[in-house]
Amino acid sequence: MPTAARPRTLVLSPDDPVGVAVRAVVKFHTAAFAREEPKARAGDAEGVHQLRVATRRLRAALRFFGPTLPPAAVAQAESELSAMADVIGAVRDLDVLGATVARRARRVEPELRDGIRGLEETIRQQREPAQQALTAALDSPRRRTLLARLDSITGPPGRPGRTTPLIAVAPTLLAPLLRAVRDAGRRVDAKASPARLHRLRVRAKRLRYALETLRGLGGKRLAAAVAELTRLQELLGEHQDMVIAIAWLQTHVPDEASRATLLATGALVQVLGRRARRLRRRAPAAWNDVQRRVLRHDLLGAHAALPRPTTRHLHVARG
After folding, report:
1. Residue 317 placed within a domain
2. What is the CATH number of the domain that holds 229?
3. I need a surface site. Which of 132, 143, 147, 221 has the fewest CB within 10 A?
């Protein structure tokens, strides 16, 4: 049986000029966008998911390297990426909602499960126009303009101020992301609001993306930090899925829904609510792990103190 290809990763070297690094990162995620686009156009749920990931990583890269790039051009590209992300997200959110409803429906009493079919059909009906809007956005001139803008915004890499080694500027670029995560984590406890937990999740994800970009500059400590942030992000992400599903169920059940659907909806809301409370109780411990194992360490300091090589090692690897 053939072995599945491992995901591609971009490995940067400490001595890569920052201009070369940012161009490589943007091109890497732009290529991922192009790879996933045909599957997303075809309505494939995983293709839509990966297209959204590529878009988010492009936005994260522009934010991270923003101080080294032209501010006006970055702002324009971010605005266009945000608009594209909204269209992709409309489809992806419905896919996640459908999967959440299907998975949690197994916790509902068997005699009520038939009533959930009406909910699943409503989600499918809402997905169709969202998918059409996504296809239209991918066909639009705006999409071509966006990709061209991303290509031009990062070059030429030899521009003044962009030949500084990446390791020299990485701590400065990381600092605001670290502060944002610390600020978002304040007063996170078992009673934290969904909005507070979601804010922490978003900022933890941005920090994780940045650390993954810098994976070639750190050792085991940086890899462990990425793992901790991923665990926190996944826990808070599942919590947010429950919150969104509950809100949707409370507002999108049609007035003409059958009694079976109404009963099933009520039971499903209870199931989702219980899961959300369990996840919320686990959030403080996961956040404490991030504070202890990520935020209290200089993730790049040890590497920055090492003698740096005189040649670049920027390459794309698998794994």
Report:
1. no
2. 1.40.20.10
3. 132
Whether residue 23 is contained in a domain is answered as yes
The model's pTM is 0.87
* Range in 215-219, 257-261, 315-319 the model is least confident about: 315-319
- What total of structural domains would you count in the chain? 1
Please check the confidence at residue 161 and state whether its pLDDT lies above 60: no
* CB-based contact 53:159 (threshold 8 Å): no
How many beta carbons lie within 10 A of that of residue 153, not counting itself?
18
Q: For the chain, list the strands marked E by DSSP.
A: 8-11, 315-318
Contact (CB, 8 A) for 18 and 169:
yes
Tell me if 50 sits within 8 A of 32, measured CB to CB: yes
- DSSP for 203-220, written as a single string: HHHHHHHHHHHTGGG--H
Tell me which residue of 194, 189, 181, 202 sits closest to 283, measured CA to CA.
Answer: 189
Residue range(s) defining the domain that contains residue 62: 8-306
How far apart, in whole angstroms, are the C-alpha atoms of residue 174 and residue 160?
A: 22
pLDDT 10s digits, 127-143: 999 999 999 999 999 88
Determine the average pLDDT of the residues in 121-131.
Answer: 94
Say if 86 falls within a structural domain. Answer: yes
